[in-house]
Structures are given as C-alpha cells and as structure tokens.
Design a protein that fits this description.
By secondary structure, the protein is an all-alpha fold. It has helices at about 5-20, 20-25, 30-35, 45-60, 70-80. The chain has one domain. Helix 1 runs parallel beside helix 4 and helix 4 packs across helix 5. It is globular, with a radius of gyration of 12 Å.
C-alpha cells in the first residue's frame, strides 16, 4: 500500500496474527513481507516491522530474524531519518 500508516499498522497486525496462528503467517508469506518492510523508506514502518519481528522472535522456537550487515545498514539508515 502507498500509505505508510497502513504499512506500519499491517506490520503490527502480523505479530498479533502470529500469536493466534503462526502456521498461517508462515504459509501465507507474511513473515517475508514483514522482513521486506525493513527496507521501507518510512522510518515508522521500519520501526514497527522491527518491533513486530522482535515480538514474534520472543514467542517462536526457531530463528525468525537475523541481523546481517545488510540489514543493519538498512536499520541505521532508517534511524538516521528519525533524527
């Protein structure tokens, strides 16, 4: 969606949906979409995507989100936009 509000809200919805039905989130590709939001040009979308992934990681028995140098670079760019 073009509206950052929709994207940032959708990120948090994925985390809530994961609590209800983790298999559905994985099968429908919502986790991959959530990871893609880390590259968003809106820092609030990035922040919500990271928060959602962190929440999912806390409840998951498997590794959901791994911070690589590429991911870290995206996060630092988003952080720079916030200041």
């Amino acid at each position: 969606d073009d509206d950052p509000y929709v994207r940032k809200t959708a990120a948090m919805c994925v985390a809530k949906l994961y609590d209800l039905n983790a298999e559905l989130v994985e099968d429908r590709g919502f986790l991959d979409m959530l990871k893609d939001l880390i590259s968003d040009n809106n820092p609030m979308v990035v922040a919500n995507a990271v928060a959602a992934l962190a929440e999912i990681q806390e409840t998951s028995s498997q590794s959901i989100f791994e911070v690589t140098s590429h991911t870290l670079s995206k996060l630092l760019a988003a952080l720079n936009e916030c200041t």
